[in-house]
Amino acid sequence: MEPEVVRAELVLPTHLSFKRMQMYEKYPKGQARGRHWKHLKQILQAENFQNYPPDEPNYVNIESPPSMHPCKRICDITGFEAPYSDPRTNLRYAGADVFKLVRSLPNEYVQRYLALRNAAVVLK
Amino acid sequence: MPFISQFHRQSDYNYFSSATPIVIDNGASYFRIGWAGENDPRVIFRNIVQRPRHKSTGETVTIVGDHDPALLKYFDCTRSGPRSAFDSNVVYQFEIMEYILDFGFDRLGANGSQIDHPILITECVCNPVQSRSKMAELLFETYGVPSVAFGVDAAFSYKYNQRRGICNKDGLAICPGFTTTHVIPFIDGEPVYKGCCRTNIGGYHVTDYLKQLLSLKYPHHMARFTWEKVEDLKMEHCYIAPDYASEARLFQKGTKEAEDKTRCWQLPWVPPPVEEPPSEEEIARKAAIKERQGQRLREMAEAKRSSRINELENQLRGMEFLLQQLEQVEEDEIPSFLKDTGYVSKQEIESSLVKVTQSLRKAKGEPKAEQTEVEEKSDSSMNEKFPLVNIPDNMLTPEQLKEKKRQLFLKTTSDGRQRAKQKRQEEELERERRNQLDEEKRLENPELYLEQMHIKYKELSEKVEQRKRLKTNGNHSNGNNVSGGVGRGERLNAAQRERMRLLTTAAFDRGKGEDTFGAKDEDWQLYKLMSKDNDDDDDDGLDEDEVELAHVSSRLQEIDPTFAPKPDAGPSQPAPEVPRLRPLTKEDFQILIGVERFRCPEILFHPNLVGIDQAGLDEMTGVSMRRLSPKDQDLQERLTSSILLTGGSCLYPGLSERLEAGVRMIRPSGSPIKVVRALDPVLDAWRGASTYAAALQFPRQTFSRMDYYEKGEDWLRRYQFCYTL
Questions:
Q1: Which of residues 259-318 of B touch A (CB under 8 A)?
Q2: Is A72 in contact with B244 (Cβ distance < 8 A)?
Q3: Looking at CA atoms only, how far is residue A59 from chain B in angstroms?
Q4: Does the pLDDT at position B488 exceed 80?
Q5: What is the Cα–Cα distance from B59 to A4, expressed in whole angstroms?
Q6: So what's the architecture of B13-47+85-166+680-715 in CATH?
Q7: pLDDT digit string (tens) for B668-713?
Q8: 3-state class of B593 per DSSP?
Q9: Could you tell me which residues come within 8 angstroms of residue B687 by beta carbon, excluding any fewer than 6 positions away?
Q10: Do A18 and B212 touch (CB under 8 A)?
């Protein structure tokens, strides 16, 4: 290791005296270990919240409901108010000059703009 | 800057008794650790882990938190980016969490055989019990912690501010964090999770939105928008617009106000060196140098020429002298006489004499016409010059046979030259004849002739152009391939594509039906088209059409003063070439942030803008109160008169005003509304936790390893920190 790296103590030591069990003992090298952590979705499924009374707060039921306000439509490119939307690309746009830009965008960019508001076409 | 990492190793770990709790604020963006009762955490770092490979040794190492990026040059970070233990606001990856805790305790100075201090660690509201138990297990089993307590960061922050009189015992804590935003109502100083609500949007989404928007707006500078840089931009420039629509309209109209609000980030840019036109002296000096060089070259050439002439003259004189001497020598003695001169016969000397005279003439720069004369002369004396050609082989000695071969060769070459000359003359005649015909036609009917010529020119130029287009690329007019991905098909030009098509059809046609290939002569042309060098066969030299085109256009120029030939310099050059040639200016390296300044944080109020279909900040307060008690107006009034903003994402200027306006809209008119910001929205959670951990009642709130194993999961689920002391 380079001296400046050592001086900054950048790298976490593999052996730490205050631990009862070291990292290398717990997760021995060469064993597949990436997959055994449940993601949040799996954790929530395993919690079986449906078995508990609905008025008891839990991680799922404290979530906010969908907004009651009408959806705000803003131009995907400029951020201005967007009275129009392009039927070909599904992008919302503010005016004629933005429309020109919308039509000149390559599909890759169109999809990235749409992905910003989670409206992109996802091929599975 | 509200977020500053500090990770110097502490040296006073051993001075603290084992009863002093360690307080950890385990936020999704930052990890803060310190001692109970102190006002500030000792160690703060970003809650991320990287596992890059050390470049020189090749070992995989663990790097926790954010370090000086300059030090990372020794590591290969391409394989693994920074990783977080959080999925949304819940810890799920306890391997990463362990690295982070390792680093935290290590920097706090821990050096014993275990962590012998109670621990108060924050978690999210209604943390799933799985995550909570895994965290407890990790602390108990790996670090040997005697006891643990879990609390909610936003609640600690609210209580901390309540104690300082910022907010009341009844109120709302609004906490926009890194990945989620919470609203927690407080009644009598205790959080009521029943009325709590969470929207999955936070500072992470704002930064990501800004990053995406900027890289879409400035695709050339995409590499500049690193996460850290965009985070800095967000913290420095973003604000919440009082009214999004009217603010956006300001920018749309391009008013002066909007211009003032637009921020400009100048990327490093060095102007290209300006080329000054050379001065008079410079030009003169250069011309003089050129002149001198030219003079020298000319002198050299002259010297060379004169030396050559000298040499040739000497040779000539020598040969003449030799010939004179030969006259006096007897016929039989010639071979022996010539032995030491290198010549074989008299004829040879004569022929070389002729050659030398010729080259001497050439060297002296005399007109070539004489040379042709000489040639003709030599033609007439052909038979004398090549006496051996017509004699049969069997009548000759081997010596003479060799001589005959040489003579034959000379004869054929001179014949060839003769024929070429004849052909040239014939062509000349033909051209003249055609020109004459042309001229006659023109004189007959000048207008018709001109028209015909124009038509011909047009046809020819189109033909030539099309061929060129086919050769370069068939689809140059398609604008899309400039920016979009270039597929496999687009890489081949039209001619190559046609060839590929022919090859594939030939490959698949075999054995299908009756084979009639070769019945017609044209069939064999196919191989010519297929051959690889087909597409570059006419690269050298102009083809027929081009020659014809040149001829027609020159003729047109002669007779039609209004005619202007189309510029030949590649009519297939597309227009997009032009801007690339424009020199890059300072403006090309400027990142303008205008609407983005308030568009990005706007998603806190309208998560719809980034496709999250949940209520925004202002609506959430209403939802929260409805959940708590839809009827109790009195309680609701008490709650809205003490709204506390805490958490990292409430630092945007204008947030509290906007929130107040939003809450006013959902409340009956005249109801009291008071929105305050926490003293320090970022550190108050840790400070609140620190005071709780230092309190005398704290040990009653913790649970030990024994409790953890005896009381079971259901108890752990219902475990709740009590905030009223």
A1: none
A2: yes
A3: 5
A4: no
A5: 18
A6: 2-Layer Sandwich (3.30)
A7: 888 899 999 999 999 999 999 999 999 999 999 999 999 999 998 8
A8: strand
A9: B39, B40, B156, B160, B680
A10: no
Contact B693/B721 with Cβ under 8 angstroms? no
Find, among B541, B509, B543, B538, the residue nearest to B526 by Cα. Answer: B509
List, in order, residues 6 or more apart from B620 with CB less than 8 Å away: A64, B174, B181, B183, B197, B199
B126:A11 CB<8 A: no
Task: Give the closest residue to B616 by CA, choosing from B661, B679, B678.
Answer: B661
Contact criterion met (CB < 8 Å) for A43 and B213:
no
Question: Which pair of structure tokens corresponds to residue B425?
Answer: 């003359």
Across B251-386, the runs of DSSP E, i.e. the strands, are 263-266
pLDDT tens digits along B379-429 = 555 556 676 777 777 777 778 888 888 888 888 888 899 999 999 999 999
Residue corresponding to tokens 């926490």: B678
CB B668 within 8 A of CB B625: no
Cβ-contact B132, B97 below 8 angstroms: no
A123 inside 8 A of chain B by CB: no
A chain contacts of residue B484, beta-carbon cutoff 8 Å:
106-108
The dotted CATH code for B203-269+592-677 is 3.90.640.10
Cβ contact, residue pair A17, B112, below 8 Å: yes
Domain ranges of chain B: 13-47+85-166+680-715, 203-269+592-677, 294-364, 388-430
Q: Which of B7, B92, B482 to mutate to test the interface with A (most CBs of A within 10 A)?
A: B92
Across B88-207, where does the E strand assignment appear?
Answer: 90-91, 119-123, 147-152, 171-176, 181-187, 190-191, 197-199
Residue B451 token pair: 């028209």
Does residue B469 register a pLDDT over 80? no
Residue at B654: amino acid letter: G
DSSP H or E run through B25:
strand B22-26
| Maximum Cα–Cα distance across chain A | 67
Inter-chain touch A12–B245, beta carbons under 8 Å: no
Q: B227-237 and B203-217 helices cross at what angle (nearest 10)?
A: 100
> Are the beta carbons of A80 and B90 separated by less than 8 Å?
no
Locate the chain A residue with the closest alpha carbon to B130: A43
CA atoms of B721 and B712, how far apart (whole Å): 17
Q: How far apart are CA B359 and CA B671, in angstroms?
A: 117
Using the predicted structure, report yes or no on whether residue B601 has a pLDDT greater than 80. Answer: yes
Per residue, the 3-state secondary structure of B1-16, as one string, reads CCCCCECCCCCCHHHC
ipTM of predicted complex: 0.93
Of B36, B42, B38, B9, the residue nearest B111 (C-alpha): B9
* Cβ-Cβ contacts under 8 Å for B63 (sequence gap 6 or more): A10, A11, A12, B49, B50, B51, B52, B72, B75
Closest residue in A to B621 (Cα) is A64
Strands (E), B426-541: none
Q: Roughly what angle, to the nearest 10 degrees, separates helices B655-666 and B617-628?
A: 50
Query: Residue A23: what pLDDT?
Result: 87
Q: Is B587 helix (H, G, I), strand (E, B) or coil?
A: helix
Cα dist. B294→A29, B289, B299, B308, B541 in Å?
77, 8, 9, 21, 32
Contact indicator for A85, A92 with CB cutoff of 8 Å? yes
- Which chain B residues are Cβ-neighbours of A106 within 8 angstroms? 480, 483-484
Q: What is the rounded CA–CA span in Å between residue A74 and residue A81? A: 5
- Phi/psi of residue A57, nearest 5 degrees: -70, 135
